[in-house]
Amino acid sequence: MFNILIVDDQKHIRDGLQAMLSQFSLQPDSIYCAANGIEALQILRQTSIQLVITDIRMPEMDGLALMAITKEERIKVDYLIISGYSDFAYAQKAIGLGAKGYLLKPVKQEDLQTAVEHVWQEIKTRQTLSRNMKHISRRARETDRKELCMYMQGATNDEAWVHQTQQQNPELWGNYRLCLLREKLWINQPGASSAHSMESIAYSVYGRRGCICLQHGPHLILAVDADVDAGALPAALQAGQIDAITAMTDPQQGLKGLPDSYTQVLELYRHSYLFPDKRCILPTHIERLEQQWQLPHEELYALFQLIGAKNSSEITQGISMMFHKDVLQRYHIRYTQQLCRAMVQMLEEYERVIRPYMGEEALDIECLRNLFDYPGIRDYIQALQQQLLRLNQFYYEYKCSYRNTQDVNEAIRFIHESYHKPLDLAMVSNHVSLNYAYFSNLFKKNIGKGFAEYLRDVRLDKARRLLAETEHKIVEVAAMVGYESYKSFTRAFREVMDMQPTEYRQLMRRKYEREGKYHDIAL
């Protein structure tokens, strides 16, 4: 951006300068005009101006006063001075105030163009240097932050580096806390993380010298001034409508204690899952937690004994009892982690039994391996309950399928044993002690055809063997395979085989004769 302000109390000079500028190959973005220093100062305070072309002598506020005030107010702008021969002493003062040059009246177009282009090149050079310096400074700060982060996480470093780094901010490292911020988000909650917003709020609470960001991901970790009340940051986050849990260590003196503070803040972060209702977790909240325990193996086995039940409410109740907050909050977080691992192991064992019967269906056990992948303990328990109920449904269907298979197999055995007797669906369903309609649907679902069709196929299969291998009359064959009349037998045979029983017998005998002759020739 290159904006120019022309300041002169004579309108024709202002218009002339503006006309000259508009003819240059270097075109300013905007050209502003002012009749005196007061008007010019108002424009400079409200608008980004890079170059002021001003007369020295003007009523109310001259060019020198304008330059002095803008310098005092630290308004960054360059000046070109317009003066006559008699004003040379004023021009020298203007150059002393930082003017980039002066132009003699009357101003020549080529002189104005040369001076403006010279100033513009100088501005561009300064802007480039400023950008480079900002980039270098930013990269240097990022390098320092990465080194601090690695040192915090256990990377070794020499005494000289520790001393030098501590001296860069001795007030903070003299008394600081580590602070980890975990935003409370629901699974699949839309929207980006508020890490930068949380960092900005932290700087507003502690100031630039009282706060250093050491890590952005996976969680925001800050070193903050320990003299500031521990509740100030959680309160500021709440006021900023950011739902986050803050884990904050004891005060630490000296940079050498940073790795130990990191270990402590991670421990506090893990325990924040036990206390989802606390906005700030401090070491005092976990110091009395029990360190020894026995996992509830009997309750765990009893819970899994319910797997396969039609009513799943007892399973849900069992999970709620086992993961009740009053139980979990008695022990170190390792108890909860071990309980989660035990649940996953039992899920794996039960899934292994029915895995061959599940087809493409499967449990998502992998999602349960790490409690800390979830926004909170409640989300993990919900996911665990979902997988356990899915396992229960699979087992229930598997047990039903197993029982149904036994019933159908017994029905098939009974049909093959009794096909030659009067037989109907009611007789077979009574034999396996199942409801008539239920058995009819179950049979068709498992066999792929209805009972009547299956019985007909069994009887006709037996009849074809008798027709081909014996000399029994057709009417005798019909009775032998369970048909009460010759007519009903021949009708059923013709529908399936597309020929009469006599035709079938003749066809099979001709076939046997051909096979017999072939056998004699082969011998």
From TrEMBL:
Q: Which organism is it from?
A: Cohnella abietis
Xref: Pfam families: HTH_18, Response_reg
Q: Which UniProt keywords apply?
A: Cytoplasm, DNA-binding, Phosphoprotein, Transcription, Transcription regulation, Two-component regulatory system
GO molecular function annotation: DNA-binding transcription factor activity; sequence-specific DNA binding
Give the CC-aspect GO terms: cytoplasm
Record keywords: Transcription included? Answer: yes
Q: Where in the cell is it found?
A: Cytoplasm
**What are the HTH araC/xylS-type domain coordinates in residue numbering?**
409-507
Q: What is its main location?
A: cytoplasm
Know the name of this protein? DNA-binding response regulator
The GO annotation for biological process reads:
phosphorelay signal transduction system
Q: Where does the Response regulatory domain lie? A: 3-120
> Which InterPro entries does this UniProt record tie to the protein?
CheY-like_superfamily, Homeodomain-like_sf, HptR, HTH_AraC, Sig_transdc_resp-reg_receiver
Q: Which domain of life is it from?
A: Bacteria
- Record SMART domains: HTH_ARAC, REC
